[in-house]
Design goal:
Chain lengths: 258, 304
C-alpha cells in the first residue's frame, strides 16, 4: 500500500502538440499532493499520465519516466492494465456504471478481474463503501442502480469503486468540481481520511480546497497560447500559499495574472 | 423620445409589452396549417392501408386453421387451409438471417467504434457499409443467385433467401449498433480502464451492456424490415403450398411469396388468402416492433 511516485523529465504530447514540458516532481507516500493552475496548463494531462490514461487518447505520447517506488511504469515490459490497477483514478464527473447496482459498481474492478466469491465481494463492497463514507447512506439499497444516487453520493461511490481494488496511489481529477459545497466537504473529509492509507494526487481549480486538503502543492502555468504547460514550482502547501518562491505563483493564488 | 414629449396624449414611456403582431399571427397560422397538412398527407394512406388490410384480412385469420394448416392438397378455388407453411418460412428465413447478420454486424460496429478510429480500413469499411445500405433488395437477391446458385451450384432454397436478407440486414445492424456504441460516454470506458480492466473486457462487460437496449431494438426493427422483403424470396425460393422444414433444399413458402402467388389466383379463395397473408405479415412485424419496445424498456439503464 501507499507507494511513492517520482516523475522525471516528463514531456507529454497530443499528436504534434507539446502539451506539457519537463515536469519533475516527487510525490511522497501517505500524503496529498495538489496540482493547481489555470485551465489548459496541463495539470490534468500530467495526472492522467501517472496511471497511463494519457495514452488512451488517440495520438497521445509520453516521454520521460514515472517511477512507482523506483519502478518505471512506462518501461516496455510493463502492462498498462496492471499500472491502472495499482494506481486508481477518480474523475471530474461522477461516472458510475449505469447498468450496475450500487454493490456491483463498487466491486466491478474485482468482479471483472475474475473474483467470483460472493462473500468476499460483499465484504469488499462494505469495506470500500465504509471507506468512502457512503455505507450508512446506501446499505439498505445496495441492489438499486448507482445512477439513482445524488451527485455527491455518486462521486463517493466512484471513490469506493476506486479503493475497492486496493490501489497504491489514488489520482483525483477535480473530484468536486461538479458537486455542491456540502458534498464537496464530505469528499474533502474523505480525502483526509484516505491519506492514512493512500498516496493521493488531486487536481483542483479551487485554491481553498488545495489549501485545506493537501500537504504539498504543485503550481502549473502556461506561458502563452499554444505553448506547453510547465511546472512552475512545488513546495509544502503552507509555503506555497503564504510565501511562494515564484512571482507567477503569487499572482495566481492572489488572483492577479500577467 | 422627442416625439413622445411632443404628443401629450401618449404615455411618457411607451408600454414595454405589445400584443402579437399581425404578421407573426399570420405566419404562425400558415405554419400550423402546413404542419397539419403534412401530417394528414402522411397519415391518410397509412390509415387507409391498415383499414383495407384489417377489413379484408381479419375474418380470414380468425379461423384456427389459418395458423395451423398449409394449403397442401387444396385446389386454387377451394376455400380453407391456412398459412402455417408461409408463416414458418418467413420466421425461419428471418431467424437464420438474424443468426448470421447479428454477430457479423455487431462485430463490425465494435471494430469501427472501439478499434478502427480513423484508420484507412475503418474508413473503407464505413464506405462499404454505406454502399450496402443503398443496395436494392433485388440486386442482393440476384447477387446471391449468381454466387450461390450459378457458381457454387446449389439449388434454390430458403437458405439462399436468408443469405440475400443478410446482405440487407448487416448494414442496418452495423449502423444502429455503431450509433448506440457511440453514445456510450467515454467516461465509462475511462472509469473501467482506471480500475485495471482490459479494453476487451470493458467493451464486453461495460460498453455493450450499456448500449444493449438500443442495439436489440435496432436488431428487431431490422428483422421486421427484412421479413417483408419480396425480391429475395421471388428470385431465390420457389413457392410451395405445403410445409417444407428443410432449409437447404426444395421450395419453401413465405408470406410475401404467398401473397405474390395468390395474387394470380382470381378466385374468392385466392382473394382471402392474399389479404390473410397481408394482415399476418403486418401482425408479425407489429409484434417484433412491440417486442423491440419491451426489450428496450426492460434493458435500459435504470436510475430508480
Amino acid at each position: 500500500m501507499a507507494k511513492r511516485l517520482d516523475i522525471k523529465d516528463l514531456n507529454l504530447y497530443y499528436g504534434k502538440f507539446h502539451a506539457v514540458e519537463n515536469v519533475s516532481l516527487a510525490v511522497p507516500p501517505r500524503n496529498v499532493t495538489a496540482f493547481i493552475g489555470p485551465s489548459g496548463c496541463g495539470k490534468s494531462t500530467v495526472l492522467r499520465s501517472l496511471n497511463r490514461m494519457h495514452e488512451v487518447a488517440p495520438g497521445a505520447r509520453v516521454e520521460g519516466k514515472v517511477l512507482l517506488d523506483g519502478e518505471d511504469i512506462y518501461a516496455s515490459t510493463v502492462d498498462p492494465v496492471e499500472v491502472r490497477r495499482t494506481i486508481g483514478m477518480v474523475f471530474q464527473r461522477p461516472n458510475p456504471f449505469p447498468t450496475m447496482s450500487i454493490r456491483d459498481n463498487v466491486v466491478a474492478g474485482l468482479k471483472l478481474a475474475g473474483v467470483k466469491n460472493k462473500k468476499e465481494l460483499d465484504e469488499v463492497a462494505e469495506r470500500s463503501l465504509r471507506g468512502a463514507n457512503l455505507w450508512n447512506e446506501v446499505k439498505d439499497r445496495l441492489d438499486r442502480p448507482g445512477g439513482g444516487l445524488s451527485g455527491g453520493q455518486q462521486q463517493r461511490l466512484c471513490i469506493a469503486r476506486a479503493i475497492a481494488v486496493q490501489p497504491d496511489v489514488l489520482l483525483m481529477d477535480e473530484p468536486c468540481s461538479a458537486l455542491d459545497p456540502i458534498s464537496t466537504l464530505a469528499i474533502e473529509d474523505l480525502i483526509t481520511e484516505l491519506k492514512k492509507d493512500y498516496t493521493i494526487v488531486i487536481v483542483t481549480h479551487n485554491m481553498q480546497q488545495a489549501a485545506r486538503v493537501s500537504d504539498q502543492t504543485a503550481f502549473f502555468n502556461l506561458l502563452g497560447v499554444g505553448q506547453p504547460g510547465q511546472l512552475i514550482e512545488v513546495d509544502d502547501t503552507e509555503k506555497i500559499f503564504s510565501n511562494p518562491g515564484q512571482k507567477a505563483t503569487e499572482d495566481y493564488i492572489s488572483g492577479r495574472f500577467g | 423620445m422627442s416625439t413622445n414629449l411632443a404628443d401629450p396624449a401618449r404615455l411618457a414611456t411607451p408600454p414595454t409589452f405589445q400584443s402579437v403582431s399581425l404578421s407573426r399571427r399570420i405566419k404562425n397560422g400558415v405554419a400550423t396549417a402546413l404542419v397539419w397538412t403534412a401530417f394528414l398527407i402522411a397519415v391518410i394512406p397509412l390509415v387507409w392501408v391498415l383499414y383495407t388490410v384489417v377489413q379484408r384480412g381479419f375474418p380470414v385469420i380468425l379461423d384456427g386453421d389459418w395458423w395451423q394448416k398449409s394449403l397442401s392438397g387444396l385446389l386454387a378455388r377451394q376455400q380453407g387451409g391456412g398459412a402455417y407453411h408461409a408463416i414458418y418460412g418467413t420466421l425461419v428465413q428471418g431467424l437464420v438471417c438474424a443468426l448470421i447478420s447479428v454477430p457479423v454486424g455487431i462485430m463490425i460496429a465494435i471494430y469501427l467504434v472501439e478499434y478502427g478510429g480513423r484508420t484507412r480500413l475503418a474508413k473503407a469499411t464505413t464506405f462499404m457499409v454505406d454502399i450496402l445500405t443503398g443496395v436494392p433488395s433485388i440486386v442482393a437477391a440476384l447477387f446471391i443467385y449468381t454466387v450461390w446458385i450459378t457458381y457454387a451450384g446449389f439449388g434454390r432454397s430458403a437458405f439462399a433467401v436468408s443469405l440475400a436478407l443478410v446482405l440487407l440486414m448487416v448494414p442496418v445492424v452495423v449502423r444502429t449498433t455503431e450509433e448506440m456504441l457511440k453514445i456510450v460516454p467515454d467516461e465509462l470506458r475511462e472509469a473501467s480502464y482506471a480500475l485495471g480492466i482490459p479494453k476487451w473486457k470493458t467493451i464486453v462487460k461495460i460498453v455493450i451492456p450499456t448500449a444493449l437496449s438500443g442495439i436489440l431494438t435496432g436488431i428487431m426493427l431490422a428483422l421486421a424490415r427484412v421479413m417483408g422483403e419480396t425480391a429475395p424470396v421471388l428470385v431465390l425460393a420457389a413457392y410451395a403450398p405445403f410445409i417444407n422444414y428443410n432449409l437447404f433444399d426444395g421450395p419453401m413458402a413465405s408470406l410475401p411469396l404467398m401473397m405474390v402467388n395468390e395474387r394470380n389466383n382470381p378466385t374468392e379463395a385466392g382473394f382471402e388468402r392474399l389479404w390473410g397473408a397481408a394482415i399476418t405479415l403486418v401482425l408479425i412485424i407489429t409484434l417484433f416492433n412491440l417486442l423491440a419496445t419491451v426489450i428496450s424498456r426492460v434493458l435500459a439503464p435504470k436510475t430508480k
